[in-house]
Amino acid sequence: MTSAYPWLVLLAGAVVTYAWRGVGVLLSGRIDADGLLFRWIGAVAYALLAALIARMIVLPIGPLAATALTDRLGGAAAAIVVFLLTRRSLLFGVLAGATALVLLTNL
Amino acid sequence: MLGASYVGFGSLCRESGLSLMQGMASTTSAWALPGQVAMVELYGVGASLVAIILAVALANARLLPMTVTLMPLIRTAETPRWRAYLAAYFVAVTAWAQGMQRCPGLPREQRLPYFVGFASTLWMVTLAATAIGFFAAGQLPASVSLGLVFLNPIYFMLIFMVDLRQRLRALALGCGAVLGPSLSLLAADWGLLFAGLVGGTAAFLLDAAIGRTRRR
After folding, report:
1. Across the interface, which of B89, B147, B184 has its CB nearest the CB of A98?
2. Which residues in B50-62 are b (16+ Cβ under 10 Å) and which e?
3. For residue range A9-59, what is the model confidence (pLDDT) as tens digits?
4. By C-alpha distance, which of B108, B120, B98 is closest to B73?
């Protein structure tokens, strides 16, 4: 792999991302954004992201791979509990999750 | 809050072997966190370019309907086309939600400037946050920087909890979450894509089936 490869990945990622927005401008006013096709596309996007998140928590790569599965699940559970207790405060939920993981790992 | 999750993204970049410039370039050029995280994760496991492109495309597909719904709101008949395309670049979850909420209450000619101003401010914050996350991951002891990398999955997990009230989204999230880890075991790079396509389609069909039985 050459050093240009990561840049190519980034460029491709940016082009694909903007393409959706550009086509969106082009089509605006002409199509129904709540139609069946978009419901399906939305479902696929949500499933893909849920798959990604579940994988990052259950089967992570990088430094998280060195932590115990129970610690990661504990962190995730702490995040959910605090999120619900603080009337759905994302900030407190996420902080609680990350802190819980760090504490559990260092016990 | 968006800032904090980009701190996590910056850390993720470092752990996946990307440089600071590359991480910041990703935030500058793509500016849609779910796709960026998918991209960096797949890059980290050494997935092929085609798999990465398809996964990013699917993860960000929601930008299309989002742009379609926002444009009629912020665009007037006199808006030059290039300004509409420029504004579209700033369509991402947080800015979009703000625009959809606030713009209807503003005079027409102020809406586009408001949206671009709000979004570009956010954009600056996320850029700074990416850099902070990158440096923090290098400076902090490994046991603490773990928490930073953990910010991303936790952030999205909590965001999606709000969506569980919508049946189709809840089904899609459930199917994806079950299929994701299992299919990733089979194939690190394509597993994610299949989980999205199969899980999403299953959820879509299930949702339609439930809708039909309810109506009967």
Report:
1. B147
2. ebbbbbbbbbbbb
3. 899 989 999 998 998 898 887 777 677 888 888 888 888 889 988 988 998
4. B108
Distance from CA of A28 to the nearest CA of B (A): 4
Q: Is B172 in CB contact (< 8 Å) with chain A?
A: yes
| CB-defined contacts A:B, below 8 A | 307
Query: What's the domain count of chain A?
Result: 3
User: What is the predicted pLDDT for the residue at B201?
Assistant: 93
Q: Kindly state whether residues A75 and A101 are assigned to the same domain.
A: yes
Scanning the structure block, which residue is given the tokens 């401010």? B121
Tokens describing residue A66:
């060195």
- For residue A91, the chain B residue with the least C-alpha distance is B1
Domain borders along chain B are 1-162, 164-216
State pTM to two decimals. 0.83
What ipTM does this complex have?
0.87
Cβ neighbours around B199 below 10 Å, total = 28
Which amino acid makes up residue B32? A
Taking the Cβ of residue A103 and every Cβ of chain B, the question of whether any pair is shorter than 8 Å is answered with no
A103 and A73 assigned to the same domain:
yes
Q: Do A37 and A57 belong to one domain?
A: yes
CA distance readout (Å), A86 to A89, A92, B109: 5, 7, 39
CA nearest B28 in A: which residue?
A: A14
A9 with A21, same domain: the answer is yes
3-class DSSP state of B180: helix
Q: How far apart are CA B50 and CA B166, in angstroms?
A: 32
